[in-house]
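User: My instructor asked us to take a sequence, write out its structure as tokens, and then describe one feature of it. I'm not sure where to start. Here is the sequence I was given:
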Amino acid sequence: MKNTQNTIKTDFSFTLMSRRLDENYHPESNTRLTTNFANLARGVDRQQNLRNALNMINNRFNALAHLDNPKGDRYHVELEIMTVTLNIDHKKSIDNLPMMEVLKTNILDRKTNQYVEGVAGNNFSSYVRDYDFSILLIEYNKDKPKFTVPEKFGDLHGKLYQSFVRSETYKEHFKQSPIICLSVSGNKIYTRTEFQHPVLGFEYLQNEYSLTDQYFSKMGMKVRFFMPANSVAPMAFYHTGDLLKEYTDLGLISSISTMETFQKIYRPEIYNANSVAGKIFQPSLKHEDYSLTRVEYDRVERSQLAIEQGKYCEEYFIKPYQYILEQWAADFDL
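Assistant: Let's start with the prediction itself. The structure tokens for your sequence are:
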């Protein structure tokens, strides 16, 4: 980072905490509650919710990893919640505001009794992203006749993310760059190509970039869309390197099985539909021909929490550290 007469030299570093996601998981006080797994782990049925979701992940994994797996029970997926806290000048910016949370998959091969490292990323959550989409973007478009995006929208978040991925903290814990797997956009059209990857399935092309695609591009990520075997809709795979060459088959399967399970729970209209996406596909949350999983989820509450947590981020991170963040972002070398 440059140190000029008009800037203050600030060092950013990261602390990474890991916690097992299993049926006994309880969200901690600093957990971003709109995160997929945190939503499942609350309420009177929290343990059964988690148990059902984890069973879905393992069943889907074994169905995809079917080679030399005649009983469909060779592999067991274990999940770690990786919580990232930003430190400014070696001090935590705020104790109960984790900057980001991702999931890491680990795969137990019961045949060899050995672990295979999976993929980092998968699910992705961020307080700053809550602020950008649920506070900044909404306020910016209030009373505007046409929806527009603020200048430099997502710049700070993208640079914070890239700083973390480049950090020694990341390199100490992960061997590969992350894959983040999200739902396709409800206002875009997807066309199936003839290319079929042995694990990811048929590739789809999007008719135009979405706001999410643009936001993730500022994180240094590009996107490809694939529909794995026996899925009913394509998913968006955000990545930095070569998605088809840099990851093992089991690693890709761990990402698919984990995130497809979450999407079936949170967006059953798309990912648990009773019909399969055709050659030309436009997803819709208004689709009515779908099945529900045995996992309870409150989508309205999740939206409300995103606003609350966006405001929290604004009050305790964006405003108090605005000058430091602006100086750091202006000097950050992409």
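For the description part of your assignment, you could build on this observation: Confidence is low (pLDDT under 50) at residues 1-5. Try explaining in your own words what that tells you about the chain.
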